[in-house]
Structure formats: structure tokens, C-alpha cells
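Records of this kind hold a single protein each, on a pair of labelled lines. With that in mind, the following record should read easily:
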Amino acid sequence: MNDGPVLSIADVSIAMGQGAAISQTRSDLLLMSNRLSDLMFGLGVAEKAFRLIRENLMWAIVYNLIAIPAAVAGWLEPWHAALGMSLSSLLVVLNALRLYLLPRPAFPLTVE
């Protein structure tokens, strides 16, 4: 109960799902389960997601740096540019779906 003020001034604070309500509202991150291994899994997913965001941004920037000047110069028909943009968006979505390929942690069954 007295962790709330400390959690609110900490640089990074994490509260567990079964903790006091004041601790949950004052923390930066709320871990809904009571397993610390879920925190490691969440950090791994966040790291992979950040890497995929950077990849998708780089792909979009490179595509737009090439396709927009080509379309303005008339080297591409408008339907080619539209098709290319649609395929680019599809590539970004498929790249982001790679997050689903991360292995899920296996937890032993607990007896309560």
C-alpha cells in the first residue's frame, strides 16, 4: 500500500497484477500476471516490435524516395504507382505479422 508514492517518482516502475490498487495506478507498467517470466517475454516482444517498426519505416522511406520521383517524372503510370503503394502496404503488414512467430513461453502448471 505504501509503494504508490515511490512508484510514481521512480524512473521505471512495474506493479504486479495482484498488487494493491494504488500501486497499480501509480506504476508505469502493470504486469497482469504474477510471473516475472511474463515480464521478460513482454520485453522480448517489445524489442522485436521496435525492430520491425524500424524495418517498416525504412522500407516505406526507400519506396517513397524511389516511387514518388518516378511517378512525378512520368516514368510510372498512375496505376503502377497505386499498385506499388498497395504492395508496399501489404509488405509492411506481413512484416509486422512476424511478431506472431515468436515462441510463447511454456509455463508449468501450478497447483493452488
